[in-house]
Specification:
Elements lengths: L4 H9 L11 H4 L9 H46 L7 E3 L7 E3 L3 E4 L4 E5 L8 E2 L5 E4 L4 E2 L2 E2 L5 E3 L14 E4 L11 E3 L8 E2 L3 E6 L2 H8 L2 H7 L12 H5 L2 E4 L2 H44 L13
Parallel strand pairs: 6-12
Antiparallel strand pairs: 1-2, 3-14, 4-13, 5-9, 6-9, 7-8, 10-11, 10-13
Helix pairs in contact: 3-7
Length: 308
């Protein structure tokens, strides 16, 4: 029957509200649970304490591995875009304290001399429409892991200037966010994400040199320079901030070589990161399944002993 307590709870589990999913406490009390004898309860609890701790340790190791690989990736990019591929190249003082020495024949330029930053589209909540009625607006949630994803989309029906329509080769940057750590995350616009628009908390950097500049923005150089404008109260990358970024710039042929090298090397690291993320997900899913099996009697743990 749909009005029985269990059905009421099951319906509540679907959640209510448009922004926050929740279950009312008055309905939670109708949850039916399997209640084994006290001795078995103790055995199940001991089993789950031990097994979930073991799984949690494995998840923590995967999380640490992912962090290590991500830092290795950034360090590799940072080294190559500041020192180049030729370890025997003569060096010079860049004239920028935080940058140090760079190959003698490289230049140091500000991004405003290489391209142009464009702030995203401002729109009203009333402009939001269904997919079939408007244009997709890329937001921070559409930039995940250095790629454009389409899992959380918003569409608007409003006039969009031509300059705010994405083009292949643009770099989409999160320029404003409640989380300081998300400022600067970025992705390259490709064919699938071109000819749409982007929101006011995002910035497009448009340049003929973006194949190379993309790697600069994904190195530790961005983190170093961001300290000059990100504070405890300001979480915003302005166009002036972006335009005044100083970057080391090798010759066109070196830029092409560096870009090809980094694509190859980071692809290998990204494969390892993806495998670690997949393992972490499988472990978390196993943890949930194990708990469910134990508390519903699908696993007999009465004879289980720690360390056995």
């Amino acid at each position: 029957a749909t009005d029985c307590p269990q059905a009421t709870f099951q319906k509540a589990c679907m959640g209510r509200g448009f922004t926050v999913m929740h279950i009312y406490a008055s309905e939670l009390k109708y949850l039916s649970v399997v209640l084994p004898p006290l001795a078995e309860q103790h055995a199940i609890a001991a089993f789950l304490d031990a097994e979930t701790a073991r799984i949690d340790m494995l998840v923590a190791k995967q999380t640490a591995l992912i962090a290590t690989l991500q830092e290795k990736r950034r360090a590799l990019i940072s080294h190559v875009v500041t020192k180049g591929l030729d370890s025997a190249a003569p060096m010079k003082d860049s004239g920028v304290p935080w940058l140090g020495v760079v190959p003698r024949h490289w230049e140091v330029k500000r991004l405003k001399h290489l391209g142009n930053g464009i702030i995203g589209l401002t729109y009203d909540p009333s402009d939001i429409v269904d997919e079939s009625e408007g244009i997709l607006v890329l937001r921070s949630s559409n930039v995940q892991g250095g790629r454009i994803v389409f899992d959380d989309n918003v569409y608007v029906r409003t006039e969009v200037p031509e300059t705010k329509i994405t083009r292949e080769g643009d770099i989409l940057i999160c320029s404003r966010n409640g989380s300081r750590a998300l400022i600067g995350k970025n992705a390259m616009i490709d064919e699938t994400s071109s000819k749409i628009t982007f929101g006011a908390f995002m910035t497009i950097y448009r340049s003929d040199e973006n194949d190379y500049i993309y790697w600069i923005l994904n190195s530790n150089l961005f983190k170093t320079q961001s300290a000059t404008f990100l504070t405890s109260t300001i979480n915003q990358l302005t166009i002036d901030n972006l335009h005044n970024f100083q970057i080391p710039l090798p010759s066109p042929s070196e830029r092409r070589s560096i870009t090809a090298y980094l694509k190859q090397e980071t692809a290998q690291i990204d494969t390892l990161i993806a495998k670690a993320e997949e393992m972490s997900l499988l472990l978390r899913e196993h943890r949930v399944a194990l708990i469910a099996a134990a508390v519903t009697g699908q696993i007999d743990v009465r004879g289980w002993a720690a360390g056995a």
